[in-house]
Amino acid sequence: MTPALQTLGLTHHFGAFLATDNVNISLPPGARHALIGPNGAGKTTLVNLLTGVLRPGAGRILMGGEEVTGMAQDRRVRRGLSRTFQINQLFPELTPLQSVSLAVARRMELDGGWWRPLGHGGAVAKEAAEILGRFGLSDAMGRRVGDLPYGRQRLLEVALAIAARPRVLLLDEPAAGVPEAEREDILAAIRALPREVAVLLIEHDMDLVFRFAESITVLVSGAVLMEGTPAEVAADPRVRAVYLGE
Ligand code: ADP
């Protein structure tokens, strides 16, 4: 099956420093894949290459078999790439309903022309409310985003990314800074994501990674150390050496 997202020999230098070293990853449609690696392994650089923030020095990026390597960020979004950010990108003064409505309206605009959302205000709000319900945010719908607990703000970020109906979703440390008590909600929400979307999770919390992912790529010094199932990765002595100094 054509991968939803694939990199072929992806390589990137910062000056003389090799930050991404011939990386091949492949996510089939509906994948639940995680990217892990110690600090400085090149995870953020890889995300920036995938989203188009950076242009690779060499190699290719394909979405659904189509070349997106040199494509601008917004065109990749239109091709079905969506992401969340490590750093909170929300508008604190809006409500969750307003925030998701904007994302839904934006998608409709991209799908069908600028005039559609104007005539479909009711449909936009209805879909936004339905999405918020899926993320357990119905009761928070009309509150000020800035007043929500941090874990719920992170959930809202995932809801916003999903409102674009992506084929590929990059989750960039969705649990970063989230207190332990709220982490289960994040895990439940990302586990419940629709199977139409292939998910690439970048996350430090290994518990979350191992409970979410069906396959894992381990990145070290910019290169793929190994790829496998969570069980294979957990049992690999090279991975244990990197993480535990064994
Ligand atoms: P990770 O996200 O896995 O912690 P990064 O992708 O942030 O890793 O960084 C990989 C390596 O590339 C690090 O050694 C980092 O110092 C270096 N690096 C990242 N961004 C830049 C940059 N803009 N200029 C120079 N070096 C960079």
From TrEMBL:
Domain of life according to the entry: Bacteria
Tagged with keyword Phosphoprotein: no
UniProt keyword Cytoplasm, yes or no: no
Ranges where the ABC transporter domain occurs: 5-246
A GO MF label: ATP binding
Gene3D superfamilies registered for this protein in UniProt: P-loop containing nucleotide triphosphate hydrolases (3.40.50.300)
InterPro entries: AAA+_ATPase (IPR003593), ABC_AA/LPS_Transport (IPR051120), ABC_transporter-like_ATP-bd (IPR003439), BCA_ABC_TP_C (IPR032823), P-loop_NTPase (IPR027417)
Keywords carried by this UniProt record: ATP-binding, Nucleotide-binding, Transport
Record-linked PANTHER family: ABC TRANSPORTER ATP-BINDING PROTEIN, CONSERVED COMPONENT OF ABC TRANSPORTER FOR NATURAL AMINO ACIDS-RELATED
Protein name as catalogued: ABC transporter ATP-binding protein
Organism in which the protein naturally occurs: Roseomonas populi
